[in-house]
């Protein structure tokens, strides 16, 4: 197990280095001038030249890249002149709030999708299976922003049950103090994930229930509950572990949109504001952090695979 984890970790670090290189080059190919974006469109050429020299933007791209890697190695993600703060500080302020939103949405989605998929597999081709299959297709086809707007219309405007905007605050504690405001953002992210997870869980459970060891357990007189929980469920969770890890990019992109719709003060809203103001240090820093999250999600999925099925490590 230890060797397997070390190999996958090394591969992840190599992938992260390549992703960082590609992102750095792509950001430098974008139209516009970072100096003008930071100093304003009326900045004088002498001021722009001084800014480029200070930030190392007058050097060749590869020199800039190695300088950027050196900064990353020292925990420096750059400085935002628009926000007048370091990217690391802005990220540290916003990241716990995004983790709260994504964590709640993921926990809710998994807690609902797994038993829902098991129920659909057990009640295959019955009325409830058809109903939840249709509902899954509907929610899965919804764009995130459209689903958020519909939920606001129904629960906030029409029935006045929940606030139409997310809670704001400087800390997670302050946000949790107004928990009702989190319901709609969490519901927006969770419903789309439930639609995806439940479909995969249903298919995986159907495959497991058709295996020979399930028929053997039934022939021995094992109860239906024990067959589902002790025999079929664990093997059915193996594809789910991969799905949850691979869904990290989709969840992160959904969080960017959801935070914008509900004005939630997380990393996603910071990214949108940076894109509107051409704040390149924030865009590059947050994109790199998102890449780390995606790679880490895949790494955790691989480790979960090895835990659930020991044969994987070989």
At a glance:
With 314 residues, the protein is mostly helical. It folds into two domains: 86 residues, no CATH class; 222 residues, MetI-like fold (Orthogonal Bundle).
Q: Strands, helices and their partners?
A:
Blueprint: H1 2-29, H2 34-39, H3 45-55, H4 61-73, E1 79-80, E2 85-86, H5 87-122, H6 127-141, H7 144-158, H8 172-176, H9 183-209, H10 212-219, H11 224-246, H12 248-262, H13 267-276, H14 280-308
Antiparallel strand pairs: 1-2
Gyration radius, in Å: 24 Å
Please report the number of helical segments: 14
The appropriate CATH architecture of the largest domain is: Orthogonal Bundle
Point out poorly predicted stretches.
Answer: none
CATH fold name of the largest domain: MetI-like fold
Distance between the termini: 9 Å
Q: What structural class do you assign from the helix and strand content? A: mainly alpha
CATH superfamily of the largest domain: MetI-like
What value does the average pLDDT take? 85
**Tertiary shape:** globular
Strand arrangement in the largest pleated sheet = 1-2
Helix content: over 70%
């Amino acid at each position: 197990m230890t060797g397997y984890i070390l190999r996958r970790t090394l591969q992840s670090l190599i992938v992260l280095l390549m992703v960082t290189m590609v992102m750095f080059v792509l950001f430098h190919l974008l139209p516009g001038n970072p100096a003008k974006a930071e100093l304003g469109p009326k900045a004088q050429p002498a001021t722009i030249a001084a800014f480029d020299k200070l930030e190392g933007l007058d050097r060749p791209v590869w020199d800039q890249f190695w300088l950027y890697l050196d900064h990353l190695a020292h925990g420096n993600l750059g400085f935002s002149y628009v926000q007048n703060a370091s990217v690391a500080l802005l990220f540290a302020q916003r990241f716990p709030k995004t983790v709260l939103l994504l964590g709640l949405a993921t926990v809710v989605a998994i807690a609902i999708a797994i038993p829902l998929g098991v129920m659909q597999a057990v009640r295959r081709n019955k009325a409830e299976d058809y109903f939840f299959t249709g509902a899954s297709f509907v929610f899965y086809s919804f764009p995130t922003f459209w689903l958020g707007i519909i939920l606001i219309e129904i629960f906030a405007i029409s029935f006045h049950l929940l606030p139409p905007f997310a809670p704001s605050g400087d800390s997670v504690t302050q946000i949790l103090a107004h928990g009702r405001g989190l319901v709609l953002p969490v519901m927006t992210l969770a419903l789309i994930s439930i639609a995806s997870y439940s479909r995969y869980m249903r298919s995986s459970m159907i495959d497991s229930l058709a295996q020979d060891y399930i028929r053997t357990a039934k022939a021995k007189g094992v109860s239906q509950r024990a067959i589902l929980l002790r025999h079929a469920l664990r093997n059915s969770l193996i594809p789910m572990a991969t799905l949850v890890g691979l869904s990290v990019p989709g969840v992160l992109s959904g969080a960017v949109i959801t935070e914008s719709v509900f004005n939630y003060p997380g990393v996603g809203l910071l990214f949108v504001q940076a894109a509107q103001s051409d704040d390149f240090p924030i865009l590059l820093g947050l994109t790199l952090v998102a890449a780390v999250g995606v790679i880490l999600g895949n790494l955790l999925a691989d480790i979960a695979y090895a835990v659930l099925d020991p044969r994987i490590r070989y």
